[in-house]
UniProtKB/TrEMBL annotation:
Alphabetized UniProt keyword annotations: Signal
GO biological-process terms attached to the record: dopamine catabolic process; norepinephrine biosynthetic process; octopamine biosynthetic process
Domain spans labelled DOMON: 40-151
Alphabetical list of CDD domains matching this protein: DOMON_DOH
Family matches, as PROSITE patterns: DOMON
Name used for this protein in its record: DOMON domain-containing protein
Listed InterPro entries: Cu2_ascorb_mOase_N_sf, DBH-like, DOH_DOMON, DOMON_domain, PHM/PNGase_F_dom_sf
PANTHER family membership: DOPAMINE BETA HYDROXYLASE RELATED, MOXD1 HOMOLOG 1
GO molecular function, one term: copper ion binding
SMART domains: DoH
Keyword Signal: yes
GO CC terms in record: extracellular space; secretory granule membrane
Length: 298
């Protein structure tokens, strides 16, 4: 009796597999295959060698196909590809998920499309990736947190960070006084990427945005500039304030940028004594905005 049940189960199992795969022939022999859903609308074939894994999906749709791998079997965090075929052209991209939210395009595309087609069954996509891409799907918040030396809150007026392209690394660890004291070799460094001012709290970047740090074409030199306010000319103030910057290894699809609007505050900005109110007007003509967005898009 027990044996009969097993035989029945095995036959049922074979029938299910056979039914699900009817009319579906992979583009080449694969070592493994499975029916991902319950009714045979999503079939998966795959094979590996020492370095790569190749998948082929046959999905009963003429819309789009999503495919994801996650360590925990859940929708996130996952490494995801999405693709479809339209007018004979296959569209295919590498994404990742960090929440129950639309997947985000990866900055580094790790999956490569080998084949895409629509047929009577549905849509076929074949794609390959390296087995270890170091593409960590877990993501940390990128944040900038002001760390102000206790007692100096009224003195630390603002802190900015500049990123310096094309600067001689000999300027590493050089100290200088702002305005007149800037060493000649650091003069070209006006690319401000972080700005904190008195009253500001921790700044969190949006999940899909970040500055690239430490990649091959990123600069080696950054300048942290702290500006102080000391109207009473109090002496003996020792300050150790700064910014704690949290980085993530996970690439963000969009590069952040910082735009300065308004009046350039420098020594030429003089408010005459005993003024009750003083209005400063600044203009940002559209040509200026065009120039900035054109320059940074590239
Ligand atoms: C995968 O299949 C190929 C033939 O298609 C075979 O040569 C190879 O040994 C198989 N590898 C594994 C791990 O089963
Ligand atoms: C398979 O099941 C899904 C979910 O229940 C359903 O939407 C789809 O229409 C079914 N497809 C077929 C071919 O039965
Ligand atoms: C492993 O598979 C990849 C992708 O198909 C292929 O490019 C690579 O040459 C294969 N490596 C070996 C050693 O066969």
């Amino acid at each position: 009796m027990a044996r009969q049940q097993i035989v029945t189960l095995v036959i049922l199992f074979c029938l299910a597999v056979a039914r699900g795969f009817i009319g579906v022939v992979p583009t080449e022999p694969f070592n493994y295959s499975t029916q991902v859903d319950t009714n045979g609308s999503y079939l998966l074939f795959w094979k590996t060698n020492n370095t790569h894994i190749t998948f082929e999906v046959h999905v009963k749709t003429h819309g789009y196909v999503g495919f994801g791998l996650s360590d925990n079997g859940k929708m996130y965090p996952a490494d995801v590809v999405i693709g479809w075929v339209k007018d004979g052209v296959t569209h295919f991209k590498d994404y990742h998920t960090t929440a129950h939210a639309p997947p985000v395009v990866d900055k580094h595309q790790d999956w490569f499309l080998l084949h895409g087609e629509e047929n009577n069954f549905g849509t076929v996509l074949k794609f390959v990736r390296k087995l270890d891409t170091c593409d960590k799907t877990e993501d940390k918040k990128i944040e900038v947190e002001p760390i102000i030396t206790p007692g100096n809150e009224i003195h630390v007026h603002h802190i900015v960070v500049y990123r310096c392209r094309g600067i001689d690394p000999k300027f590493d660890k050089v100290h200088y006084n702002c305005y007149n004291g800037i060493p000649r070799g650091l003069r070209p460094c006006y690319d401000m990427i972080i700005a904190w001012a008195i009253g500001g709290n921790t700044f969190y970047y949006p999940d899909h945005v970040g500055f690239s740090v430490g990649a091959a074409d990123d600069p080696d030199v950054y300048i942290l500039e702290t500006h102080y306010d000391n109207p009473a000319l109090k002496s003996g103030v020792i300050d150790n304030s700064g910014l704690r910057i949290t980085l993530t290894k996970n690439f963000r699809p969009y590069e952040a940028d910082l735009i300065e609007l308004g009046h350039q505050f420098d020594w030429k900005h003089i408010i005459p004594p005993f003024e009750k109110a003083y209005v400063t007007q600044a203009f940002c003509p559209s040509q200026c905005i065009d120039h900035v967005s054109m320059k940074r898009e590239l």
